[in-house]
Design a protein that fits this description.
Elements lengths: L2 E11 L16 E4 L3 E9 L4 H4 L3 E6 L5 E9 L2 E7 L9 H6 L1 H4 L5 E16 L5 E14 L6 E11 L5 H12 L3 E2 L5 H5 L1 H6 L18 H24 L5 H18 L6 H37 L9 H24 L2 H15 L10 H23 L6 H28 L1 H39 L4 H30 L12
Antiparallel strand pairs: 1-6, 1-9, 1-10, 2-7, 3-4, 3-7, 4-5, 5-6, 7-8, 8-9
Helix pairs in contact: 7-8, 7-11, 7-13, 8-9, 8-13, 9-10, 9-11, 12-13, 13-14, 14-15
């Protein structure tokens, strides 16, 4: 058993509701009724309902054709990733599912919190070619809470789950259902409905909601908080996907770390100095643990492409195999390092600290209007970039200049993130400036990537040459190409800099 993406909509109906003829839905040729089944599910959560509060469900279901353990992780409204595991015994909950929920549980024990028995009648909607467009299920639900207090509820609902059809089929089915008297459910899930009273008395989600509308008169701290909330949400959402080794998950978590760290640095006056210093170190080390895994992944793709583009007469020995073996070993070790970090108490403490940050008060001038405070801090970040570039420009090509350009790249990234922070307040000018900073960051990033690749190729080439391996020749060719790539990116950056540093790009935040 593995995982799948669930896209569904739920509708509340009363007992007198008559399911309409579903073949009237555009594109539906047949709506075959499947046999009625009885499903029994026991849901697990902490005493304070940490999973349910964050729209996560963990259950053990029997009956039907998908019996087993199910962990559902939210992706977007009406969209969840569902991870499946075999039934096994009642206890304990599969360890890997507990691991996937660790970032939300953070040491809290799991226990059964609800039991649902569902009498389900399903209708599979297919087109003329026999393609499964969607499934419409009619559920009669009997639910009870488990624990010190038992509450029993009964209700009927309709669920529509997308099959392999176009998502537009959900709208078409909805139109038919609502015309017959169905209403969109107010509950996100069956569990949310049965736990309703308990959830209403529990704390809210781990991450608070950001202010709905940000304006220039909005307190500056609330503008920064909204950005930090988005980054913490991204970190929490990608945590289980990093553990599952999902594509691009490591990259997205690392970016969330870097955006958070950059924001704390740029807008440091809004936070206690000791908190900024503490989180800076912790976020740096988390991003570092993730970076090795991400870098190995990127390097494998990059070198594979480089070798594919080389003429055959420049390929000597099994250079493809040699590079792949080295990087695959690096990737395996890096993934183990990343998982070790995510399973440490240090990481869980960092998560708690980040949640306290976005839920707690800010300090300094954070209560002042955004237009009075944020431009100056953005201007400070911009001047830091100019100083770094100014120090690198007159130096000759070499290691010292490379190091300063690497520092400038990091500052260009911070400037880009700072522009993203104020983007909701300043609109198109901020978005355009963020894109400009990103252009600078990308050129300097290419320079840094080539610098790293040169170091790897130099080491590999020396080893191959010492061992008398023919791959040394091709590694030398690649080394020359990376030297050219680094210097081309460096040249392109300095060609861009006179325009990128022009005042006209900054009129919206630099006071005259």
């Amino acid at each position: 058993m593995g995982s799948s993406r669930e896209i569904e909509r739920k509708y509340s109906v009363d007992q007198s509701f008559v399911l309409p003829r579903l073949t009237q839905v555009d594109g539906v040729a047949t709506a075959r009724t499947r046999r009625t089944v009885t499903l029994e599910a026991v849901y697990y959560d902490s005493d304070d309902l940490r999973l349910a509060r964050n729209r996560i469900t963990l259950r053990r279901r029997t009956g039907g054709d998908d019996a087993g353990w199910h962990l559902k992780l939210p992706v977007a409204p009406g969209v969840r990733d569902e991870i499946h595991r075999p039934l096994g015994s009642h206890d304990p909950v599969p360890a890997d599912l507990v691991d996937l929920a660790t970032v939300h549980l953070r040491g809290a024990e799991l226990r059964p919190v609800a039991r649902l028995v569902t009498l389900r009648t399903a209708r599979r909607l297919r087109d003329k070619a026999g393609c499964d467009l969607a499934e419409v299920v009619d559920d009669q639900v009997t639910a009870q809470t488990l624990g010190a207090t038992t509450v029993v509820q009964k209700w009927r609902e309709i669920e529509v789950e997308l099959g392999s059809g176009d998502p537009g089929v959900l709208d078409a089915v909805e139109a038919v259902l609502t015309a017959a008297g169905a209403e969109l459910s107010a509950s996100a899930s069956k569990l949310a409905q049965v736990l309703g009273p308990a959830l209403s008395g529990a704390p809210g989600p781990d991450v608070p909601r950001a202010a709905a509308k940000l304006r220039r008169r909005t307190p500056a701290g609330e503008v920064v908080r909204a950005y930090l909330i988005a980054q913490v949400e991204a970190l929490l959402a990608t945590d289980p996907r990093v553990r599952l080794d999902a594509p691009d998950a490591v990259h997205r978590m690392r970016v969330a770390c870097r955006r958070t760290r950059s924001t704390l640095r740029t807008f440091a006056p809004f936070f206690p100095a000791e908190l900024v210093a503490h989180l800076d170190v912790e976020l740096r080390d988390l991003a570092g643990a993730l970076s090795a895994a991400r870098d190995a992944e990127v390097q494998i793709d990059y070198f594979t492409g480089r070798l594919e583009d080389l003429p055959a007469d420049l390929l000597r020995g099994d250079v493809v195999g040699a590079i792949s073996a080295r990087l695959a070993a690096d990737q395996t070790a890096a993934r183990a390092q990343a998982l070790e970090m995510l399973r440490s108490e240090r990481y869980l403490t960092l998560v708690e600290d980040l949640l306290a940050l976005v839920n707690g008060p800010f300090v300094g001038r954070s209560g002042k209007p955004a237009e009075k405070v944020l431009p100056g801090l953005l201007h400070d970040a911009d001047r830091r970039l100019s100083r770094k570039v100014g120090r690198a420009a007159p130096l000759p090509v070499g290691a010292e200049r490379d190091e300063l350009l690497h520092s400038a790249r990091k500052q260009a990234k911070r400037l880009r993130y700072a522009a993203e922070v104020v983007g909701p307040v300043y609109g198109p000018p901020a978005a355009a400036f963020a894109r400009l900073a990103e252009s600078m960051q990308e050129l300097l990033g290419t320079h840094q990537d080539a610098t790293i690749a040169r170091g790897l190729l130099r080491d590999w080439g020396v080893e191959a040459q010492t061992a008398g391996e023919p791959t040394a020749y091709t590694l030398g060719v690649l080394l020359g190409l990376e030297e050219c790539r680094a210097r081309t990116a460096e040249r392109d950056f300095f060609d861009l800099w006179p325009d990128a540093s022009a005042r006209r790009h900054r009129r919206w935040f630099v006071r005259r």
